[in-house]
Design a protein that fits this description.
40% helix, binds pyridoxal-5'-phosphate, alpha/beta, single chain
């Protein structure tokens, strides 16, 4: 299937309140331009060192999302242009985003990554940590970040019931935070969940952003091992 027909097929099933993030990590500029020329404008990358040169080389009306684990010392490279950071997984990282936002006089939208999968290796806060996190006094003072929602990755498994339950768990947490929080830095509107293998389930469970790579661009080649 071509990139353009893959995009059309995915968008056909997308509810009005759900956006498609085309995950272009490891993909060359030509493939991204193929999606761009088919009308797509939102792309996601998982490494700052890949995102920055792509931003510089490609059209300026692309909305770039950072979806992968972000080291604090890399924030400065993406802070000037990133539209949304999906992968905030520590207070220290958020503090750095706020610091860079302050230098640039911009408010950077962020999602908190929540660990919903069984696998140990995935980054993110536990549900308890999220509640501790939102009551951190420092958070009140940070004017240059805005927390607009949550992101999560389900377990990589054929067991669709398990995947569905993990998405339900994230949605419940999202609703709790949305109704319970009068925090000025919080505007809970986005729920980023669903990838190539499970985005249809994620949509059924209330996703507002699906992050899809393989189903659009085909399999990735990893020159330096798996990430
Ligand atoms: C790679 C990646 C995706 C997309 O995965 P596919 O299975 O290729 O759709 C989504 N989210 C994150 C955080 C990723 O790193």
């Amino acid at each position: 299937m071509s990139i353009s027909s893959a995009l059309t097929a995915i968008k056909k099933d997308l509810p009005a309140n759900c956006r498609l993030i085309a995950v272009s990590k490891t993909q060359p500029a030509e493939k991204i331009m193929e999606a761009y020329n088919a009308g797509h404008r939102i792309f996601g990358e998982n490494k700052a060192q890949e995102l920055t040169p792509k931003y510089e080389a490609l059209p300026r009306d692309i909305e770039w999302h950072m979806i992968g684990h972000l080291q604090s010392n890399k924030v400065k490279f993406i802070a000037p242009f990133v539209s949304l950071i999906h992968s905030i997984d520590s207070l220290k990282l958020l503090e750095e985003v706020n610091k860079q936002g302050s230098k640039l006089q911009r408010q950077i939208p962020c999602l908190l990554q929540v660990h919903i999968a069984e696998e140990e290796t995935k980054f993110g806060f536990s549900e308890e940590e999220i509640f501790q996190f939102i009551s951190s006094p420092q958070l009140q003072q940070w004017q240059h970040i805005r927390i607009t929602g949550l992101m999560g990755m389900a377990t990589f498994t054929e067991n669709t019931e398990q995947v569905r339950n993990e998405f339900k768990k994230l949605k419940n947490l999202f609703e709790k935070l949305r109704s319970g929080s009068s925090h000025p830095a919080f505007q809970m509107t986005e729920l980023s969940m669903g990838m190539s293998g499970d985005y249809k389930i994620a949509i059924e469970e209330g996703s507002t952003m699906i992050r899809v790579g393989t189903a659009i661009f085909g399999e990735r080649n990893y020159p330096h091992g798996l990430h």
